[in-house]
Design goal:
The chain is of the alpha/beta class and about 450 residues long. The protein has helices spanning about 1-20, 25-35, 60-70, 85-95, 115-120, 140, 145-155, 170-175, 270-285, 290-300, 325-335, 380-390, 405-410, 425-435; strands at about 45, 50-55, 75-80, 100-105, 105-110, 130, 160-165, 185-190, 215-225, 225-230, 240-250, 255, 260-265, 305-310, 315-320, 340-345, 370-375, 400, 415-420. It contains 14 helices and 19 strands. The chain binds zinc ion.
Length: about 450
């Protein structure tokens, strides 16, 4: 009875929010969860629940999976706006359920914060879990990456649903052994691409075998610690791969899986991994290849995640980067482009960003290909400027502005191609300032 009243109250509140023209974010979930943390049990869901978790790439992967299902004519409920903690998922469920907790859909697709997988899916039956990567991210919130992996590993010990794992991330592939009784493990991988290296260019995790502690050997690195690895002692890493992306062509934005060519709207190795995970996932639900092809060829994200726009006829590429790996991936894309370009880096240290910005020292600014000027902004405009200067970039070409509006104005005083990197809370304000000029 109590749950019925919570739902009734939330429905009324939701209508109120709608009338006020507000989306509410995770507000409904916050209140309902405070009332009853076991409320997840109350929902009656008769369709598969799919979740995507990772340090980086959750939103891209989650939204692409939902988009493919929708293209196939399915009804999908998803947290596409990225509210990915327990209260965010709960808000999404509350908005779409009946008063008896019934949810009508063909698929529920959620991106879930790495720390909240065990909390949310204690009481919701998960059909498929996709895990992309684990990097150091907001250490002060998540604790060390190792303790995070162990928490998910504990959850997986009794999990028997589909588990889709990145076979090229030693932090992720190890989770395939959490429950020997689970025979629904699917590894995905990406063939060596043209910019892969034999030594690690960027700070990364996963140097030692989690099973025998021997140093892991890499045949090559794609980016950070993602690559073809194997433990020379116990052969960890030598898994049978379910889906493998091949013929990676970042210039033409194509790759193949099972001899089918996919064209996408993104040009980074990092997204090839995301889309290989996407293809692995929807293939488990018998979605036709031509529908996947068609959907991926039109899928974009209009939220500053590798978003490409024209501002005053100047090509501008905006990307979110909330940790060293995200930043290094953005710089990798910038460095693979030979055109002259300018960079705007916006760094905030609000609570949602993590107050500790020392991770910027793990960003690889040492080689910047044809960058003629860097503007920095955000509450930590000077920290990031000093970081870039220390890496050897000429100081006269670095311009810090605490005021974001002023920074964007100066940024667009030239006609040179623009790259923008912004962290969590700075992304939308930066994007809005840029769009004002459009
Ligand atoms: Zn080993």
């Amino acid at each position: 009875m109590k749950n019925f009243f919570i739902l009734l109250a939330m429905k009324v509140l939701h209508i109120g929010l709608k009338i006020a023209g507000k989306n509410g974010g995770n507000f409904l979930g916050k209140i309902a969860y405070d009332w009853n943390p076991n409320i997840f049990k109350y929902f009656k869901i008769n369709c598969p629940i799919i979740a995507v978790t990772a340090t980086n790439g959750k939103t891209m992967t989650n939204n692409a999976i939902g988009y493919i299902f929708k293209t196939a004519g399915k009804k999908v409920i998803s947290n596409t706006e990225g509210n990915n903690m327990e209260t965010g998922i709960l808000s999404t469920l509350l908005k779409h359920c009946s008063l008896t907790g019934k949810i009508k859909a063909d698929y529920l697709v959620f991106e879930v914060d790495e720390g909240y997988v065990p909390v949310i899916f204690k009481d919701l039956k998960l059909d498929t879990l996709v895990i992309l990567d684990f990097f150091r991210d907001q250490l002060d919130r998540n604790g060390e990456v190792e303790s995070l992996i162990l928490r998910i590993n504990d959850f997986l010990k009794t999990y028997t649903g589909n588990l889709i794992l990145n076979n090229d991330d030693p932090n992720v592939a190890r989770l395939g052994q959490a429950n020997p009784e689970n025979h629904n493990i699917y590894y995905f991988s990406v063939e060596k691409y043209s910019h892969a290296t034999t030594d690690m260019k960027e700070a990364g995790e996963g140097k030692f075998c989690p099973f025998c502690n021997t140093r892991i050997e890499y045949e090559y690195y794609q980016y950070s610690h993602i690559g073809k690895f194997k433990c020379p002692n116990c052969n960890y890493g030598d898994n049978e791969v379910y889906k493998m992306a091949k013929n990676i062509d970042l210039k033409n934005r194509t790759f193949t899986v099972d001899d089918v060519t996919y064209k996408i709207r993104f040009n980074s190795i990092y997204n090839i991994y995301n889309f290989t995970a996407v293809i692995s996932c929807v293939s488990l639900y018998s979605i036709d290849t031509d529908i996947i092809q068609k959907a991926l060829s039109t899928f974009i994200l209009n939220n500053g995640r590798l978003e490409e726009i024209q501002v005053k006829n100047i090509p501008t590429i905006i990307n979110l980067a909330k940790n060293p790996t995200g930043s290094n991936v953005s710089l990798r894309i910038l460095n693979e482009d030979d055109d002259e370009k300018e960079l705007l880096f916006v760094l905030n240290d609000n609570i949602a960003d993590g107050r500790d910005v020392s991770w910027i020292w793990d960003i690889n600014f040492d080689t910047l290909n044809n960058v003629s000027r860097i503007i920095t902004s955000g509450t930590r405009a000077y920290d990031i400027a000093i970081r870039i200067k220390t890496a050897g970039f000429p100081v006269e070409k670095i311009e810090p502005y605490l005021d974001l509006h002023e920074a964007v104005e100066h940024f667009y005083q030239t006609n040179v191609k623009k790259y923008v990197i912004a962290n969590y809370t700075s992304l939308q304000p930066t994007r809005n300032e840029i769009l004002k000029l459009k």
